[in-house]
């Protein structure tokens, strides 16, 4: 009876993962359709950077899903692969949050209605943020199984705080995720200069703090809604 229940639960989890992936693909496809319509109507490729930014937002999700798959196999080699996936995920995770700041580019152009561009950028921002949220929940689950529930929430807070700092470095200092590999020394020096002398860089601190609070509050809200839905679906749990 117990084994049958475990198999049933496993199948339900797999179905939820497939449904989640399908919804993310559908959301990204909608973004692609909207911007393609804009390209055709305007005859220009304005905002094409949104496509690249959304592509980068998919990388951490792929890393998180791979890490979860390796973690379930529970072998030494797989644990090493989990670590590699986790580091790669952390490097690219800020890209999923970064898309939110593309709203800064919103302005009337190419004889396109202002509201159309607003909806388009919001769609990309929402898709990127969803990709980040799902990838973070997958990684949080791994941390919770390994170190416990409270450690997993500290992990979430630390990750979103680092992600917010990463947004600042990408938006205003124009550093990219792959710069940690291609030119790590100057990037780390830039990070250390701001962390070691925070009062000399007030905009960095205020920007990172506000975005951290925003992302943490929304993540907690989404997690609470997910827990409420699970509780309603399992009243005896």
Describe the protein's architecture and organization:
- This protein has 237 residues and is mainly α.
- Helices cover 82% and strands 0% of the residues.
- The chain contains eight helices and no strands.
- It has helices at 2-42, 49-73, 76-98, 114-147, 149-171, 179-182, 184-196, 202-233.
- Helix 1 packs antiparallel against helix 4 (114-147), helix 2 (49-73) packs parallel to helix 4 and helix 5 packs across helix 8.
- The radius of gyration is 20 Å and the shape is globular.
- The protein starts with a helix and ends with a helix.
- 27% of the residues are buried.
- Mean pLDDT is 86; it is low at 1-13.
Tell me roughly what share of residues is in helical segments. over 70%
Q: Round the mean pLDDT to the nearest integer and report it.
A: 86
Low-confidence stretches: 1-13
Number of helices: 8
Annotation, overall tally of beta strands: 0
Shape: globular
**Helix and strand composition category:** mainly alpha
Termini Cα gap = 17 Å
Order of helices and strands: HHHHHHHH
Largest sheet: none
Approximate strand percentage:
under 5%
Rg estimate, integer Å = 20 Å
């Amino acid at each position: 009876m117990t084994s049958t229940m475990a198999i049933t639960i496993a199948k339900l989890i797999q179905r939820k993962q497939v449904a989640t992936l399908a919804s993310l693909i559908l959301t990204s496809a909608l973004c692609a359709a909207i911007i393609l319509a804009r390209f055709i109507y305007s005859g220009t490729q304005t905002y094409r950077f949104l496509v690249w930014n959304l592509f980068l937002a998919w990388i951490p999700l792929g890393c998180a899903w791979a890490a979860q798959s390796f973690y379930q196999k529970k072998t030494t080699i797989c644990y090493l692969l989990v670590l590699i996936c986790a580091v790669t995920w952390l490097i690219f995770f800020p890209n999923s949050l970064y898309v939110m700041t593309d709203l800064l580019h919103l302005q009337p152009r190419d004889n396109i209605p202002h509201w159309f561009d607003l909806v388009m950028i919001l769609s990309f921002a929402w898709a990127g943020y969803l990709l980040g949220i799902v990838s973070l929940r997958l990684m949080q689950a791994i941390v919770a199984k390994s170190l416990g529930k409270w450690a997993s929430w500290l992990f979430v807070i630390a990750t979103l705080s680092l992600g917010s700092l990463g947004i600042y470095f990408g938006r205003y200092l124009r550093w990219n995720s792959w710069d940690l590999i291609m030119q790590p020394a100057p990037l780390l020096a830039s990070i250390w200069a701001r962390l070691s002398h925070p009062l000399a860089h007030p905009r960095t601190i205020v920007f990172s703090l506000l975005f951290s609070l925003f992302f943490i509050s929304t993540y907690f809200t989404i997690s609470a809604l997910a827990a409420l839905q699970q509780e309603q679906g399992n009243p005896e749990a």
